[in-house]
Design a protein that fits this description.
Layout (H helix, E strand, L loop, with lengths): L12 H7 L2 H4 L4 H19 L6 E6 L5 E5 L17 H6 L22 H6 L1 E10 L2 E8 L2 E2 L4 E5 L4 E8 L11 H14 L4 E6 L7 E5 L5 H11 L9 E7 L4 E9 L6 E6 L2 E2 L5 H20 L19 E9 L15 H21 L1 H17 L1
Parallel strand pairs: 1-8, 12-14
Antiparallel strand pairs: 1-2, 2-7, 3-4, 3-7, 4-5, 4-6, 8-9, 10-11, 11-14, 12-13
Helix pairs in contact: 8-9, 8-10, 9-10
Length: about 375
Amino acid sequence: MEYDVAAIEVLEGREAVRKRPGMWIGSVGERGVLQMVWEAVGRAVNQSLPGQGGTVDVTLTRDGGVRLADDGPGDPFETTGDTGGPGLETLLTSLHAGPDPGGRHTVAVGHPRVGLCVVNALSSRLRAEVRREGVLRAQEYARGVAVAPPATLGPADRSGTTIVFWPDTEVFDSTGCSFAVLAERFRQVAFLNPGLGITLTDERPAGEARAVMFRYPGGVRDFVAALDAEAGSLLHEEVIGFEREDPRMAGVMEVAFLWNGSREERMHSFANSLATRQGGTHVDGFREGVAAAVTVYARRRGLLTAADTDLDVARIGEGLTAVVSVKLDRPQFLGATVGLLGNTAVRACVGEAVQEHLGTWFEERPERAAEIVARLVRGLHED
């Protein structure tokens, strides 16, 4: 048997995607369908966010499709010089034609970003409708191939883009996806991007459709309050929270936390709206900032003596519910996934900001500060 360059098969575009779908979306089961939804929703969210109070509507249709509608300016089908990026036709037919996934102003709903081309290629049908500059235009695709050029259908009284796709039963073992999984992720995205509204409607169940709406003006503060309520807390403690931009880390941080009467820690961290389940430099900085603020307050009030060591970061978690979110121009993740943030400057920036803000909060609320600090320091002395 001879093997030379003639034996190498180069697959490009939709052909490559359809022949090896797992390379692009990870699975031909529900996980792969969810990845397609994340990609399409991510495009819609980033279209809506520049306009304040944007809304994205996601519908699981009775016939197995997924419909996404945003109220952004509307993607032109053709590439033009004034849009700052490729047209919708290019996004739907060319791999890696989308915008750079990085940047603090880009919301990543799923990872990795595979592009609308992959969604289109793995759908038996896809329909795109654009309402832009008072005109409604539409185009149909079948398994990634345009059925006809974009057609003008008439006037439009608002702007936005609607994409409906039907995952291909020739590709997927199952084309369904979980309402609960979608709802939880959309809720996170809404918490992390104040002002953004996301609705999810499920028309699949027999009888009446179910729908939920997510919009949280308070951002991560609302997130922490919701987490605390879900844990069954009866204390309803005040949420400590702030937002700060720091040019040293080329980004912004949004931090919120509280201590309640439980012994459990609930820590949630995000980078550019993606969950960092393994933590990273933003979480390290948060813990160090809290430990430093508690130590300074405890020494000032005589709760720690000169013989006592500083409070260790491992001790701050008892009864703590926290959300630490950073949005960076150039996020750096360690490993092949986004589970661990590695930007070194973030650690010091978050740590300093948390120590300063919590220290001020302690000074303004001496009774509550004494209660929290005494509880944390008591554990140090008990050891």
